[in-house]
Design a protein that fits this description.
With 79 residues, the chain is mostly helical. It is built from three helices and no strands. Helices cover 61% and strands 0% of the residues. The radius of gyration is 12 Å and the shape is globular. The protein starts with a helix and ends with a helix.
């Protein structure tokens, strides 16, 4: 699977996750989950040792780590 395919797969997953989070905690009208994901992928994340999430899209293990991190964000678990 290419980085582009992984990005699209992750984009679909996070769109659902973020939409649910926003719906549960506030007003989802006008929220752009795809834009949020693009921003998140290109900024350092403390839970990843301040590395960029996009750098993890080149392997299955990296994608699994990102999905796990997003699920922790959804549940409110400290990552």
């Amino acid at each position: 699977m290419s980085s582009s395919d992984r990005y699209q797969e992750l984009l679909g997953l996070v769109t659902v996750i973020v939409t649910v989070i926003v719906s549960e905690s506030g007003e989802p009208a006008g929220f752009d989950a795809a834009r949020w994901l693009d921003d998140w992928l290109h900024h350092p994340v403390p839970a990843l040792g301040k590395k960029l999430p996009i750098d993890y899209l080149d392997s299955d293990a990296g994608c699994e780590l990102l999905v796990q991190l997003l699920r922790q964000m959804q549940s409110g678990a400290y990552a």
